[in-house]
Design brief:
The protein is α/β, with parallel strands linked by helices and about 600 residues long. The chain is about 30% helix and about 25% strand. The chain has a seven-stranded mixed sheet. It has a seven-stranded parallel sheet with strand order 9-8-7-10-11-12-13, with helices on both faces. The chain starts with a strand and ends with a strand. Belongs to the D-isomer specific 2-hydroxyacid dehydrogenase family. Keywords: Amino-acid biosynthesis, NAD, Oxidoreductase, Serine biosynthesis.
């Protein structure tokens, strides 16, 4: 068999020529959706270009800055209709080519169905897209774009404002004085100079907060699995592990997205690891903090103060113990609420919507264009396999260095021209990035998302002898220059390595590091390295059975009899921490890790 290596278009070190077909940078004119597919089958695909005979119509359903409205009017007919009921929106939408909303309008499946196929673009004026049904948008051939950058400075400034106000008890002292009291001794604050600030999430907002905190004389550290070390060094920030960040910080500023991996990431367990008297600022998402646990930590003196702009439920209940706590400063989600930010968002979303209506691919797209039905049908199980291998691989990474170098190897009997790996590469990128990011990765924005995070992804194809009936024999994902929380996932050459193939339409994991296994990638997986001895499968299975965790598959790969082995266990439910501890306490178990798919 012969191997040919090429660098994927998501590798930011490639030449611009290699990126021309799917370049997603905002500075270049991008190909129209229709040009990506053959004209003979164009009727099956998304075509976003506006009619040549008339202007498209854009419905603006929530207030948008005047600069954005003017931009839209230069290209389209603009209908500004605010406070529409769901029924009114569904009635209007069949006459519109594009819809722009903020967070208050729900763009449901019914909206897309009511559009009768005319709606081509939904623009979200802001970052979050929880109010847009992405699956329905994609099914109906509608592109969804957002405005992720215009709020950056406003959010960073608000974070710094809360940091300083909290440290000097500004809100409490203001309320006290207005109540007729003069309590100078009660509201003695703390200085910021020389204190350690941990920035949790070193993206756009986090890095801007770090810059400003450095200007205040603070020592800044950060945790972010994807932050490039050189970018952090340029700001004078040290990247550290999650545990080190929360254990050494005097102040913690949260700038991470709300994902399954970050939900309630600050909880009883993590508060217990913090320095007593720590102060916490959150201008990210409310759900990243367990609010009940924060109240307990405040009452116990573990957390001295908190300053919050976001909450799990917004608005929070009037009787919220957290909101009413004496040592908590709160604002009603004002992070993006500056005149400049609102105008910036309006311009950014207007430009994205106009570009999409012209048929250009937007760098801020959050869902994918449709692909040929026959290609999707053939690649569907491999697309699932690709994403799950990415998710597995990134969850095996530990430490604060971040994921930068990824190599994907496809083994196939088909000629290179007969195997288009763009969708597979995009799904691997999706699996690598989405577990710890709020970005929705797909064929449209995969390269752009990878480039933003300094992720270099290269591809190698191994040609196999045999029938080309099946598009792929296997996919292997390797992550170089990182440490692993499961040492057995490290291959002989030092990379984290996972490999999978499709069997009877179901994706399977067939290799972890140097150990061969065979487990269906359904549900989630527990990996255990053990001493190979009789009874191990029964002991681990008994623990899971006693804790009502259903096992779907179990496979053991070993180096040699009575030596080391790796057990891969597919489970339908997420085991409790107590259950995992019981597995780890089995004497012959040397290490284990739970991986959520």
């Amino acid at each position: 068999m012969a191997a040919t290596t090429s660098t994927a278009s998501s590798n930011i070190l490639t030449t611009k020529k290699n990126l021309s077909s799917l370049s997603l940078t905002s500075t270049n004119k991008l190909p129209t959706f229709s040009s990506l597919y053959s004209s003979s089958r164009r009727q099956r695909f998304i075509v976003l270009s506006a009619s040549l005979n008339s202007k498209p119509t854009v419905l603006v359903a929530e207030k948008l800055g005047e600069a954005g409205i003017n931009l839209l009017k230069d290209f389209a007919n603009v209908d500004c209709s605010y406070n529409l009921s769901p029924d009114e929106l569904c009635t209007k939408i069949s006459l519109c080519d594009a819809l722009i909303v903020r967070s208050g309008t729900k763009v449901s499946r019914e909206v897309f169905e009511s559009s009768g196929g005319r709606l081509k673009v939904v623009g979200r004026a802001g970052v979050g897209i929880d109010n847009v049904d992405l699956a329905a948008a994609t099914e109906h051939g509608c592109l969804v774009v957002n405005a992720p950058t215009a709020n950056t400075i406003a959010a960073a400034e608000h974070g710094i404002a809360l940091l300083a106000a909290m440290a000097r008890n500004v809100a409490q002292a203001d309320a006290s004085l207005k109540a007729g009291k003069w309590l100078r001794n009660k509201y003695v604050g703390v200085s910021l100079v020389g204190k350690t600030l941990a920035v949790m999430g070193f993206g756009k907002v986090g890095s801007e907060v770090a810059r400003r905190a450095k200007g205040l004389g603070m020592h800044v550290i950060a945790h972010d699995p994807y932050a490039p070390a050189d970018r952090a060094r340029a700001v004078g920030v040290e990247l550290v592990s999650f545990d080190e960040a929360i254990a050494t910080a005097d102040f913690i500023s949260l700038h991470m997205p709300l994902t399954p991996a970050t939900a309630k990431i600050l909880n009883d367990e993590t508060f217990a690891k913090m320095k007593k008297g720590v102060r916490i600022v959150n201008v990210a998402r409310g759900g990243v903090i367990d609010e009940d646990a924060l109240v307990k930590a405040l009452d116990a003196g573990i957390v001295a103060q908190a300053a919050l702009d976001v909450f799990t439920v917004e608005p929070p209940p009037q009787d919220s113990k957290l909101v009413q706590h004496e040592r908590v400063t709160v604002t009603p989600h004002l992070g993006a609420s500056t005149i400049e930010a609102q105008e910036g968002v309006a311009i950014e979303i207007a430009e994205a919507v106009v570009g999409a209506l012209k048929g250009e691919l937007a760098s801020t797209a959050v869902n994918a264009p449709m692909v040929p039905a026959e290609v999707l049908t053939e690649l569907k199980p491999y697309v699932v396999l690709a994403e799950k291998l990415g998710r597995l691989a990134v969850q095996l990474v530990s430490g604060g260095s971040g994921v930068k170098d990824v190599k994907v190897t496809y083994a196939s009997s088909r000629a290179p021209d007969d195997l288009d790996t763009r969708v597979l590469r995009a799904m691997i990128t999706k699996g690598l990035i989405e577990p710890i990011s709020s970005v929705f990765v797909n064929l449209v924005n995969a390269d752009f998302s990878a480039k933003q995070r300094g992720l270099r992804l290269s591809e190698e194809r191994i040609h196999l002898d045999g029938s080309p009936e099946s598009p792929l024999d296997s996919i292997q994902v390797q992550i170089a220059n990182v440490e692993s929380k499961f040492a057995s996932a490290i291959s002989e050459t030092g990379e984290i390595k996972v490999e999978g193939r499709v069997k009877d339409g179901i994706p399977h994991l067939i290799k972890v590091g140097s150990f061969e296994v065979d487990v269906s990638l359904e549900g989630s997986i527990i990996l255990c390295r053990q001493v190979d001895q009789p009874g191990m499968i029964g002991r681990v299975g008994s623990v899971l059975g006693e804790q009502n965790v259903n096992v779907s598959f179990m496979s053991v790969g070993r180096i040699a009899p009575r030596k080391q082995a790796v057990m891969a266990i597919g489970v339908d439910e997420q085991p409790s921490k107590e259950t995992l501890k019981m597995i780890g306490d089995i004497p012959a178990i040397e290490e284990f890790v739970f991986l959520k798919l």
